[in-house]
């Protein structure tokens, strides 16, 4: 199954983080944003669940990581996170 962006997941979706990619929106700060996400626990293999999305399925995105931490991500941050859906 191909990896999809976190922004493509619907409320209630369960997935595992595949990788943290680049987002040109952040320019020179892209690597800093990637490091910050990793420091918060957004790392390959980490399970996550989309708790909520903003109006019309757009950002912000509320997610719960497998370690039970909850975060709200802006759309730009969510576009950096590639996920693989969990079957079932």
Can you describe what's shown?
The protein has 88 residues and is of the alpha+beta class. It has helices at 30-40, 75-78; strands at 4-5, 14-20, 47-53, 61-65, 70-73, 81-85. The protein is 17% helix and 34% strand. β3 and β4 form a beta hairpin. The longest helix has 11 residues, at 30-40. It is globular, with a radius of gyration of 12 Å.
Could you write a compact summary of the structure shown?
It contains two helices and six strands; from the N terminus they run ββαβββαβ. The chain is α+β, with helices and mostly antiparallel strands and 88 residues long.
Mean pLDDT: 94
| Spatial strand order of the main sheet | 1-6-2-3-4-5
Which residues form runs of ≥5 with pLDDT under 50? none
How many strands? 6
Largest sheet: 6 strands, antiparallel
Please report the distance between the alpha carbons of the first and last residues.
Answer: 14 Å
Radius of gyration over C-alpha positions, nearest whole angstrom: 12 Å
**Helicity level:** 10-25%
Give the helix tally: 2
Task: State the order of secondary-structure elements, H for helix, E for strand.
Answer: EEHEEEHE
How would the global form be characterised?
globular
Tell me the structural class: alpha+beta
What fraction of the residues are assigned to beta strands by DSSP?
25-35%
């Amino acid at each position: 199954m191909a990896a999809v962006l976190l922004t493509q997941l619907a409320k209630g979706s369960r997935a595992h983080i595949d990788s943290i990619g680049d987002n040109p929106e952040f320019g020179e700060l892209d690597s800093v944003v990637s490091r910050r996400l990793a420091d918060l626990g957004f790392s390959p293999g980490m399970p996550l669940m989309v708790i909520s999305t903003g109006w019309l399925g757009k950002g912000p995105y509320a997610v719960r990581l497998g370690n039970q931490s909850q975060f709200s991500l802006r759309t730009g941050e969510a576009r950096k996170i590639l996920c693989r859906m969990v079957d079932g």
